[in-house]
Design a protein that fits this description.
Blueprint lengths: L15 E7 L8 E7 L7 H4 L10 H14 L2 E7 L1 H7 L1 H14 L7 E5 L11 E4 L7 H22 L7 H4 L5 H10 L10 H9 L1
Parallel strand pairs: 1-4, 4-5
Antiparallel strand pairs: 1-2, 2-3
Helix pairs in contact: 2-5, 3-4, 7-8
Length: 206
């Protein structure tokens, strides 16, 4: 039986947004981030037992839950920082940039940002709390992890149509052996992160 995650960090009627990203460890494509707000008073109990860290769920289950998150969220937003931005400002700062964009795209203004992980670049006019492994503790962060992951996977599957030689339908841009071998055979695409040279170079040696 799945563990029940918490609906709220603070007791009361404050508006909380869970924040998470997907794609930091990829060799290609953007890093995506999502922000999700649930209404504590109307959150459906059945969903509390289903939402989990996206990494613990199958792709098909993530897609089913994505539809429920979109339906039940009081507000949500998904945004990204592309591979050019990753190369320009580094992957950590690009992750923060994607998170900031997602938060700024919300229609509701949160009183508190619950950010998965141990680091975050403060965003003007917002209070935040970093929570290590927060996607396994709080519903809004788990929901954000699912949205960020599914939106990014959809993007990489779409890009597979332009660059089928890299097998992004399967690896989604992550550094699998097959992906690295494809880079060794075909070189880099416009979507590859040039600043990930050390990780990419491993492909040339396989």
């Amino acid at each position: 039986m799945m563990e029940r995650l918490k609906i709220s960090y603070n007791i009361g009627k404050s508006i909380e947004a869970g924040i998470d990203e997907a794609g930091r460890g990829c060799l290609a494509g953007p890093v995506f981030a999502a922000a999700v707000i649930f209404d504590k008073e109307t959150f459906p109990p059945h969903l509390q037992t289903q939402l989990q860290d996206s990494k613990k769920l199958s792709a098909s289950r993530r897609n089913v839950l994505r539809q429920q998150i979109v339906s039940y969220a009081a507000d949500y937003a998904v945004d990204k920082a592309d591979n050019v931005e990753v190369d320009k400002i580094n992957i950590l700062n690009a992750s923060f940039l994607a998170m900031h964009r997602a938060v700024n795209a919300l229609k509701l203004k949160p009183d508190l940002l619950l950010v998965d992980g141990n680091r975050f670049k403060p965003l003007a006019n917002f209070t935040h709390k970093c929570i290590i492994k927060g996607d396994g503790l709080f519903l809004s962060i788990a929901a954000a992890s699912i949205l960020a992951k599914t939106y990014r996977d959809d993007f990489m599957c779409e890009m597979h149509n332009q660059y089928p030689q890299y097998g992004w339908l399967k690896n989604k841009g992550y550094p699998t052996r097959e992906h690295r071998r494809a880079i060794a055979s075909h070189g880099l695409s416009p979507l590859h992160r040039r600043s990930f040279g050390g990780a990419i170079q491993l492909g040339m040696e396989l």
